[in-house]
Design brief:
Length: 237
Amino acid sequence: MKAKLIFVTGGASGLGLELVRAARRNGHRVICTGRRGAQDLPVDFPDIPYLSCDLASEDGAHMAADWALRHSGGQIDCAILNAADGHFRPLMMETPDAITRVLSVNLEANMILAHRLYPTLGGGHLALIGSVAHKGAAGMPVYAASKAALDGFGRALAEEWRGRTCVRVLHPGPTATGMAERAGRRPNAADKLFLAPRPMAQAVLDAALATKGPDRQVISYGRVLFSPARWRRKGAA
């Protein structure tokens, strides 16, 4: 596969970081944003252009878009909008500020970025990273609602941009990135079923870059565990 320029949001940790690493292993050029400061990145973070940016801030999405456009040279082959926020707690324990933040990062920022990046994505790919929680997840209704809205936005945009830019909504299954714990979920026996981040990231990257496939895809157990890419690439597990 010819090397591509890939833009990733939320690339400082979790699935986003593994997406950055996977793209670099596959020989692609990568630029990414994340909430962490540069000084807080992992010591083995790839040597790539990085912007510390909070997408929930008033101008965060526009800042990220301006930066990506400057580094793109006029063409982004694939934008993977992965940044997300959320909490594992009942609705009655949420606050208006927390609700606003989740919707800002998980939905509004993606809309703004898609709008701003449109001129650079002609003939390329836009991947919106959702979650299987978009079908409804007890204990995290705000997060689930934001991902359901993202699913609807992505499906509509796929129709609007069809023939010019390939738009896909990719819903990863439970993945052991630590996000669930950071969101307030207590560990339990179900954690043993969570998929490893590295093969999940490779499966998501393959789906984002594929020339054919449904507009909406679930990337879960069988698809990751039995994906040809998992066995084709040494060390994917």
